[in-house]
Amino acid sequence: MIQDWLGFSLPAFSGDDLVAPILGSAVFFYGGQPILTGGLEEARARRPGMMLLIALALIVAFGASVASAVGWLDLEFWWELALLVDVMLLGHWLEMRALGQATSALQALAALLPEMAERVTEAVPRR
Questions:
Q1: Is the dihedral angle over the CA atoms 60, 64, 65, 70 positive or is it negative?
Q2: What is the pTM of this model?
Q3: Which residues, including other chains, have CB under 8 Å from residue 10's CB and lie 6 or more apart?
Q4: 3-state SS string over the chain?
Q5: In this structure, is the dihedral angle defined by the CA atoms of residues 72, 75, 81 and 84, taken in order, positive or negative?
Q6: How many Å apart are CA 40 and CA 46, to the nearest integer?
Q7: How far, in Å, CA of 112 to CA of 123, rounded?
Q8: How far apart (Å, rounded) are the C-alpha atoms in residues 45 and 34?
Q9: Residue 113: exposed, middle, or buried by beta-carbon count in 10 A (0-12, 13-18, 19+)?
Q10: Cα(29)–Cα(34) distance, rounded to whole angstroms?
């Protein structure tokens, strides 16, 4: 598709039809591992969440692409699979970084609390 958009084509070689399945599988198994693990944990805990939803999307995209590679279907989602993994990993990284920064900010605020507090017993006049 990108070659069509840009008006060029790569040189053909034997096995060029296996490039997308090999790279897509590598992205799925290596890059998708944190997402798949998180989805499995959510399923085991019976608490479905975003990781389970994204894990199911990855599994379906991978399964449909593999089925297309062997000739059972005509639905290749290798590019979409790679994009979904990249976007989800980026979002997960940003979320974890923000959580870490928030935790350190709360720890810094907690360090400002005094060791002892004074109890005020006088009544404060109301207005």
A1: positive
A2: 0.70
A3: 3, 16
A4: CHHHHHCCCCCCCCCHHHHHHHHHHHHHHHHCHHHHHHHHHHHHCCCCCHHHHHHHHHHHHHHHHHHHHCCCCCCCCHHHHHHHHHHHHHHHHHHHHHHHHHHHHHHHHHHCCCCCCCCCCCCCCCC
A5: negative
A6: 10
A7: 27
A8: 16
A9: exposed
A10: 9
User: What angle, rounded to 10 degrees, do the helices at 50-69 and 33-44 form?
Assistant: 120
Q: What is the mean pLDDT of each run of 10 residues along the chain (127 residues)?
A: 80 84 92 93 94 93 92 87 92 89 85 83 74
At position 23, the amino acid (one-letter code) is L
- Ordered by start, the domain boundaries in the chain are 16-111
